[in-house]
Amino acid sequence: MTDTDVPPGAGPTQTPSADAAAPNAPPRTRDPLEARGVNDDAVAAFRREHPDRLAEVVVVIPAYNEGASVAGVVSSVPARLAGMPVDVLVVDDGSADDTGARAREAGALVATLRANTGQGNAFKVAYRVACAGGARYVATADADGQFDPKELDAMVAMLADDRADFVTGSRRLGVAHTDDSVRALGVVVFGTLISILTGVRVTDPANGLRAMRAEVAATVELRQMQYQSSELLIGAIANGFRVLEAPVTMRKRHVGASKKGGNLVYGWRFTKVVLSTWWRLRAVARRNLPARQGLW
Ligand SMILES: Nc1nc2c(ncn2[C@@H]2O[C@H](COP(=O)(O)OP(=O)(O)OP(=O)(O)O)[C@@H](O)[C@H]2O)c(=O)[nH]1
Ligand SMILES: [Mg+2]
């Protein structure tokens, strides 16, 4: 998928999805140029509100219309991970509901985008804020309650013990509660494809729980506005960072609605991101990785 690809129901010319249809809902954009101004404003406003240094570990939660679940997720983030203090940073991506207010009430720091720009772009803003705030480690969790942020403890510990630079959760090494056999098959197929392309064993390329040294977030060039998980993963590998997986549990989504579209569209867009990122980063990988690793 390209930067300007728009998920189903997300474009200005399409019918907005049900959960974005509130009157006076913020606009949506997947245009990276337009988003740049939106991002700069959000980062500047955040720094004005929180000029102090952030905690050693920043847990980032991108959220779009997740008012029903975001507070529960924020409250479930441990105050310390691997013994280090934690700040929770929610990026409210132009939500039409009370996502931002609920996140603040629950104790999160909130960066607010005035338009809905996509999960990938929300992560970019979060990584800028976390790195500028002096975070040493950055972790992520979804706002929909499908993951348990307590599982980040073991993942951050792998970084602190210097066993990895980037740790990504795996539902296949852990537990996946799902009725969606197509999505489950997709996880196997895309994990296998990325393993073959990169030479690093990946069993779950689209997990919401991950932890990385801040340097990873600052180094990997991220272009995807929405479907960014495989771009970050392949980018971390291509840049020579040590990537490991950790077992995690993935629950079913009980509230709110998926923002990712139907399985066919999701699969097609995911394929495009994997192949285009791998292709784009061949030169980077050849500089950083031993010869004959993967198909670079
Ligand atoms: N900031 C932001 N977050 C988003 C956007 N779309 C999705 N998210 C968040 O990203 C996380 C994952 O999105 P989901 O829609 O649950 O996608 P998923 O978990 O890959 O797919 P499902 O299995 O269908 O739930 C949730 O916290 C969403 O709120 C977006 O446009 N902007
Ligand atoms: Mg989800």
User: Beta-sheet strand percentage?
Assistant: 15-25%
How many β strands by DSSP? 8
Q: Please state the average pLDDT score.
A: 92
Considering DSSP H and I runs of 4 or more, what fraction of the residues is helical? 25-40%
Could you name the CATH homologous superfamily? Answer: Spore Coat Polysaccharide Biosynthesis Protein SpsA, Chain A
User: Helix/strand/pairing class, anyone?
Assistant: alpha/beta
Overall domain count: 1
Major beta sheet summary? 8 strands, mixed
Sequence stretches where pLDDT stays below 50 over 5 or more residues: 1-21
**CATH architecture level-2 label:** Alpha-Beta Complex
Count the DSSP helices. Answer: 10
Distance between the termini: 20 Å
Q: Which CATH class is shown?
A: Alpha Beta
Kindly provide the radius of gyration, computed on alpha-carbon positions and rounded to a whole number of angstroms.
Answer: 18 Å
Ligands (ions, cofactors included): guanosine-5'-triphosphate, magnesium ion
